[in-house]
Design a protein that fits this description.
This protein is of the alpha/beta class. The protein has twelve helices and 13 strands. Helix 2 packs antiparallel against helix 3, helix 2 packs antiparallel against helix 4 and helix 8 crosses helix 11.
Length: about 450
Amino acid sequence: MSDRAEPTRPSTIYLDAMRAETEARARAAGPPHSVHTGAPVSLLHRLRAALEGRRESLVALSHAVHRTAEVAFEEHRSVRLLEGVLAGAGVSAETGVHGLDTALEASWGSADTGRTVALLAEYDALPGIGHACGHNVIAASAVGAFLAVVDVMRGTDPATPLPGRVVLLGTPAEEGRTGKEIMARHGAFAGIDAALMLHPSGTDAAEQTWLGRRTLDVTFRGIAAHASAQPFMGRNALDAAALMYQGIGLLRQQMLPVDRVHASIPDGGDRPSIITESARVSVYVRSAYPQTLRELSARVEDIARGAALMTGCGVEVGWDANPPSLPVRASSELAARWAVHEQARGRQPVPAGIVPDTLAASTDFGNVSWRMPGIHPTIAIADADVAWHTRAFADAAASPRADAAVVDGAYGLAATALDYLCDDALAAAVERDFTAGGGAIDVPSYFD
């Protein structure tokens, strides 16, 4: 007889099958291909040399941020670590910018001579488990990419300077607080033509699905009564919460394969002998397209209002205490250039459609990607079965594989940035694709 005091162990059969199928699809598809030439080879040689010279300091930065592990909006020591590395390289940075105390900005070059590309750094951790999403790797690779491009610009003949400008943006509070959207509303991305960042993972992928995400808090108001003597005089808010939870479960049959809804009931009453007067349901709603996220949100809200109607309770519906995150819209042209450069580092990033859509999370970079072209590839620091937001991934984020990813990722970001600055045909193709996909949207008002 099994010990019923312990939960059953989930089977890994599905994950094992997905991993095998993903590997088979990747072999069949081959690496992404780019028709563009990108930056001159001489610049890439200088870029590699610049990064090798900074390898030790970048790995040290990654480990320092990993040890510091500050949560959203509290990354004061972490941002100072970034600022210190930049200062050591002779680059001044400004902190407390674009509406957030722990945001950072540094730049080099001139927008008057060409395009502007931004490299984005994250450095917030998760409560309790630290850098279980590997943002220390994101921070160090972005700083390394920025400084490598600066080194190349500094070493260019003043008579024929490298065109354009590179910007480093330190973006706090990605974990559930949508810091990039706050910064965007304070002008962080004004004058920027393209944005690049990476995310550590169990796979190397030039493109993968990143879902949009909204949050919903529903409060049901009932009437308290003695649950035995006069239950008929009450209106049970917990009943409404339970009906909403069950209604979400019944909705799943009609949800799109890429939709996700997960809920908790953080407040369900105090005593069984009292008809519950107030109950609260907290919900995450996710989908792969802005339009489907909007439609799914409406259906979930209908369930909340229906539960209130069935139980005679009042209901208060509160969407997005923090700004919502849109799905990531990746530039396939820039993603292909990333893949080319990662292949030069011995990696084989898979193209779009290879990593299953079911292995999808959310990021506030999606909000950036609907304002301008951008990429958010993944770089492997662990085996494919090591999931984000686990202690195992937090350990992986300070491992030798993560150290290698810091430098490999910095090279990929920096080389792609140089491609975008130097190759007019590539930049034109990036803009054409972005326009063909609908161009920029008004992100702050999208769900109004």
